[in-house]
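Worked example 2:
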Amino acid sequence: MVPLAWYKVSIVMSLEYHANSAYHDPYLKRRKRRRLVLVLLIILAGSLIVAGVSYIIPRLETRIPRRETKVPKTRVLELWSLRDYGSVLAACDHSLEIDPLDSFYLAFKGFALFYSAMAEPDTDLRASLIDDSIFATRRSLIDGEPALRAEAFYILGKAYYHKGRDYHDDALENLGTALDAGSEAIDIWEYMALASYQAGMVERSVDFFAQAIAFSPGSAELLLAAALANYETGLLSRAEGLAIDAAEKASDAYLKEKCMFLLGDVYRSTGRLAEALQRYETIKANNPESADAWYYEGLVFQQMNEAIKARASWRRAVAIDPMHPGARQKLAER
């Protein structure tokens, strides 16, 4: 029998052999180094990521201002009451960056753009502001607040009016909707009267002018415009009264002169030729270089069968304005 001690010695020697073999095996040593390098690379990459995030985030926070809250609506209304349209626009733009579809801020942005346009002397910039106003205001009506509905259509109507005659139908439609929605704007009738008159709907404008004058009876410009509309529709008596009222309230010479010309037209149309001559004499007394006054005076003399006086008046008109078409045509007639 083999002694037990011999087995113990054999086992210990076998273990030492395998241990020494693993320690000295080149392949195993390379595997250990690769694992170690991989672990070190993972640790290094993680450290770089943590450091990069820690470096970038604070700088992003300083460069990109946080816009977490809208400007309070009460503040917008306060700025609006002060007619600080630039600040209203800035407040609405700030709030719309947070909520681009908020109807309140869209509406007041449109309102502020419109009144900014009215104060803008540059024609191109003014037209651009009006277009921006229409865009913002129309967007506000997609899901608009009922309290702002009438005001929104009112601003749209005025904006379309100021875009020119091609848009007067749109102006009338929106102003009419504003009235239906409860708008109590004083000048809404004046805009409707002017839009319909300039669009060729003269008879329709007469009623609008009557409504407008009821709200602004002291406006000489409005009275004269109403007189013209009534004259063109054949309402000569009403046109005369409005023109006289406008002349009395007019504060500048040019407006008074236009009233005198209209009265002269009314009197010529009704055969009151002596009164017509008085109006043209008034014009010449205030403006001796008015070629039109001499021309229309010649028409009155023609109606009176005073041919010599008529031609003398037309020659005077041409002397003042050599290119006066009416007077030149009359002098060319035989």
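The chain has a mean pLDDT of 87. The CA atoms of residues 137 and 152 lie 6 Å apart.
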